[in-house]
Amino acid sequence: MSSSMPYEASLDEEKKRQFTKKFKLVDRIAASIIRHKKLFLVLFSLLFVAFWFGFPQFGLWSKDPKIVIILAVNEGGGVLKWKGEQEWEIERISIQNKRAYAKKHGYGLTLKDMHTAKRYSHEYREGWQKVEVLRQTMREFPNAEWFWWLDQETLIMEPEKSLESHIFKRLDSLSYRVLDEFNPLNLQLDLPYVDYTGDVDLLITQDCGGFNLGSFLVKNSEWSKLLLDIWWDPVCYEQKHMIWEHREQDALEALYANEAWIREKTAFLPLRSINSFPPGACSEFQGDSRFFYNEKEHDFVVNMAGCSFGRDCWGEMQNYGSLLERRTTRWYRSFF
């Protein structure tokens, strides 16, 4: 016993010295924080705000985005009538959804007011305005590589997916150039002198009624600028606007059907890759897995297309908004 006592005593002394050393270090750190508490408070506040609201908002990511999201809204109060409370809420939810997604991935976001802009006394051009908005946005973001158009009644359901990983990195395997398997408009399958080996500048989808322009991507290129000029040709617009029920959609379909230079730069994505439908849309195709949103397969975007024609836009937006909130809310959000 006597021989072990000095050794145990030395251990106790060593522990005391280590404890005293650590205590003095903590004391010095605490004293330093107290002396510079304002600086520490400012740094903590900046980090917290940047983390909570997203780094791109504060310039820590590029201010010159390579991808710009164009969201069509009606901030001016409606198109043919004043918006009601539910319509304002649909717009708010949609904007919040796109803004959070853009911040998360460092994309640009621009809100475009699709108000009534009468050019002729006998019609309005809300649909045709889409082409003008695209041209305007290309001038605003000259260094962007791609523009993603989204209608207001859409929700991004998988915010963790970037466009790079979901679309661009697997574009060759995901897209198709010839309408041999799915051709709802029964367009001619091919035209002379079409070269499908080049790059793609326009990515769109098809639904049960033809081309769907509620969610599509356009590359920032000279080809795209020429397409927009032809698409919004005053002669074409003036002669056909009373015939083409879907306005800009019908115009693009006609151009694709007859112009080889447009066809060779256009590719189609599966509808559910960027444009899944709720059950009420394309009602004659109920049960067809090509069209409708599938939660288990983590469809990227849901588009309440045509909900204002006999369906409940607000109810559908609430349904998918609640689903999105349940699936993406983090546990720590409950503390704030």
TrEMBL record:
Residues that span the membrane, as ranges: 39-61
Keyword Nucleotide-binding: no
Keyword Transferase attributed: yes
Keywords tagged on the record: Glycosyltransferase, Membrane, Transferase, Transmembrane, Transmembrane helix
InterPro entries (alphabetical): Glyco_trans_34 (IPR008630), Nucleotide-diphossugar_trans (IPR029044)
GO biological process: protein N-linked glycosylation
GO molecular function, one term: glycosyltransferase activity
GO CC aspect terms: Golgi membrane
Family: Belongs to the glycosyltransferase 34 family.
Protein name stated in the entry: LAFE_0H04610g1_1
Taxonomic lineage from the root: Eukaryota, Fungi, Dikarya, Ascomycota, Saccharomycotina
